[in-house]
Amino acid sequence: WLRRTLKDAIYGRVRYAVLVRRRVTGDDHRQQQQKQSPPAGGLVEWFVVVGERCAVKEMLWTDIHGLEHVEDPRQEVKAMQYIQRHYEQTHPNGTYQMSQAMLETRVMMSRDVLDDDTFMYSVMPYCEGGEFYNHLF
């Protein structure tokens, strides 16, 4: 659930978000089979606020494809995912902790990467007290 803009960035902006989870009810399966729309009332009827806070880097595809800049968001996301996978593989048996991984590798780990026709979204943990970069050095 995207809330407010934290910072403008080269390819878009970073937004504060609160995670929500789809609410599962007995009618959900029937409504999905019949391709029915959610009932009136919107998000309250279909989602539950989990409460976990995140930062979502929202990047415009037109800017990603159109701007020539040293930073390439697609490469950045690929690098974060590669380092995260490597860290997970070297810490087997469920000992992987995202916060510890970020401190040890000095790389912001992405929780998820999503996209649509307009934006690419990189969902990252929310860093209390300013930018994560400032806490690394």
From TrEMBL:
Domain of life, source organism: Eukaryota
Supply the name of the protein.
Answer: Uncharacterized protein
Q: What is the native source organism of this protein?
A: Helicotheca tamesis
